């Protein structure tokens, strides 16, 4: 009977081992790499990892190699279709060209989120991130 219950834990990652994956982290970073290992906490080991940043219709990559990711930081994990990967209509540029634009976008987003959190706190009574009432 138990064998009819689908995997809903990190055991469902067994089919993803040795495949190229996209991992989006809580801080917004997007990592591409080959999933080599994982554990019961969904901690991941990626090999040949690159971090991609995007701006407009361009992207850039920064090489990280072997990468260990704590499971609680993973927002999304998905397999990359190798046949469609080259069909992406984005132009690859040098990392140093895009990094400043990416940093400006991240700073602007952080500022917008802080303003939104302040409004939610003052007008709707929501607690701020990491503030009183946060479960951690």
Automatic annotation (TrEMBL):
Keywords: Cytoplasm, mRNA processing, mRNA splicing, Phosphoprotein, Ribonucleoprotein, RNA-binding. One of its GO terms (biological process) is mRNA processing. Residues 8-83 form the Sm domain. Its main location: cytoplasm. InterPro entries: Lsm1, LSM_dom_sf, PTHR15588, Sm, Sm_dom_euk/arc. It is found in: Cytoplasm; Cytoplasm, P-body. Transmembrane segments: none annotated. GO terms for cellular component: Lsm1-7-Pat1 complex; P-body; ribonucleoprotein complex. The keyword Nucleus does not apply. Pfam families: LSM. GO terms for molecular function: mRNA binding. Component of the heptameric LSM1-LSM7 complex that forms a seven-membered ring structure with a donut shape. Belongs to the snRNP Sm proteins family. PANTHER family: LSM1, U6 SNRNA-ASSOCIATED SM-LIKE PROTEIN LSM1. Plays a role in the degradation of histone mRNAs, the only eukaryotic mRNAs that are not polyadenylated. Probably also part of an LSm subunits-containing complex involved in the general process of mRNA degradation. This is U6 snRNA-associated Sm-like protein LSm1. The lineage of its organism: Eukaryota, Fungi, Dikarya, Basidiomycota, Agaricomycotina. The gene is LSM1.
